[in-house]
Amino acid sequence: MQYPNIDPVAISLGPLQVHWYGLTYLFGFLAAWWLGTLRARRPDSHWTAQQVSDLVFYGALGVIVGGRLGYTLFYNFSGFLADPLSLVRIWQGGMSFHGGMIGVLVTFWIFARRTGKRYFEVADFIVPMVPLGLAAGRIGNFINGELWGRASDLPWAMVFPADPLQIARHPSQLYQSLLEGLLLFTVLWLYSSKRRPMAAVTGLFGAGYGVCRIIAEFFREPDAHIGFIAFDWLTMGQLLSLPMVIAGVAMMVWAYRNPVFPQPPAAAPATAPAATPEKRRKKKGAARK
Description:
This protein has 10 helices and 2 strands. It has a two-stranded antiparallel sheet with strand order 1-2. It has helices at 20-40, 49-74, 77-82, 97-115, 119-126, 130-144, 172-192, 200-217, 236-257, 277-288, and strands at residues 9-13, 16-19. It is globular. The N and C termini lie far apart (100 Å).
């Protein structure tokens, strides 16, 4: 099957070009904001619409800065040394999930301190929305014709234009969009729809993403400048995902053994009603007596 060869530029207005890759990230942030706002309206929610908007903004900064820095550090450090300006060319692709995750974890901590919420209360609220952004980002990779899969003779295998070998390969970007994206979103959304101990939802996200990524990496061609890390099958993506599985499972075990649930914000003390003129006259009369 021939790759559809989609133009990576969605809109071109003179020198201004809007790339599909950037639009996929925008979709992910808007989806997180919309779903978060819906969940904040539930009677048992301890969130406001303004807090959801602020958290999505913080998270967007963490994803972009952390994702780009992580890609440069984990996958393209030599390219950065040769061309430092490549760090800011986000529209050309090149974002690391693991770097973006670190960036988001930092923004969770900052947001929690600013709002007085507990760290895992913040993380548990937002992580069920994250897979939709991951799904959209992998679609962006597919449109860019990058991060293709290993050689395959399956009917839906594709020949990607940028592939120097020009052989049919797994469209592994679409596999990842389905596994790390839609499947993980469905599991997390249903799981988090009921009251869970703090850190359980975050733990499930970490373990679930790690498992999905490890599976998908068996169909994805490793980066040419890195290759296999060991055993002719272990990739950098699998190596970075394995600790997520271990930490996620440990987090869920800890959460259920030491259950703590979010508490509603303390209610403001009730103020006494203002005295009426008649009550004030009676009080003054009693004082004169």
